[in-house]
Amino acid sequence: MRAIGACLVSASLAFGAPLAAKDGAETRAMPEGGESPPASVDALDWLVGQWEGKGVRGAPAMESWLKPMGGMMVGTFVQEDADGAIMFTEHMYLVQEDGSLALKLKHFNADLTGWEEKDDFLTFRLVALEECAAYFNALTLRCADRDKPGEGLVAAVRMKSGGELVFRFTRALSEISVPTCDPEITSSSTTCLAMALDASEALRAEILAIHQEMEVAIDALETSEKAFEAYREAECPASGDPEDILCRVRLTNQRIETLENTWLVRLQP
Fold first, then answer.
1. Which pTM does this prediction carry?
2. CA distance to 90, 154, 222, per residue, from 238 (Å)
């Protein structure tokens, strides 16, 4: 998570580039003798999902959180280097302790050697819990916009040397929120699958719009899109039948992966 270890060891300043907070401190400190407020890990379910942004020296960074389970949330952070290789990773646990929350983490190099000793880890105690925001001692996780909790994540950590590092993440482009469908109720399933198809088509359109802005190989992409639409129509007729809708969702999601992992990567100027 945002090179926390780099913030807490003397080598931190060698990493450089995450954004520094300018309009007031993002992090809070636990007062001497202070106690963590009552809290449940379920209050941080807005963290669940895949997040991406820029990290050390402006290189890509990715963070992900699984849904709460057994009073715990598990998260990972991956920091790339300028060549696209893994610089380091973090393994994180949000745990319920003494009626409150703590964030515990360990760092690993790309070869899986740990930064901390074998049985050691860093622990950040909860200072305050607010709507769409969790303030741990020297570490903050909050929504970029409390009115839009699924769109952005701000993570900040206070360095031992002073100052803060602030990382800003957006929801990963490929993550699609699909409603849960009841396959035993045809009308409900049809409605739900139609919503899923709308969500997939919206994401596909978003990726295509990004490619149009890049103005790279537009004719080739348009030819590819026409071929995909013909293939999808042949495999999954637009009949309104639940099985056909599900087929169209699956093929559209496969197309999204192709657009992200082939077109946007291969054809970047």
1. 0.59
2. 45, 41, 21
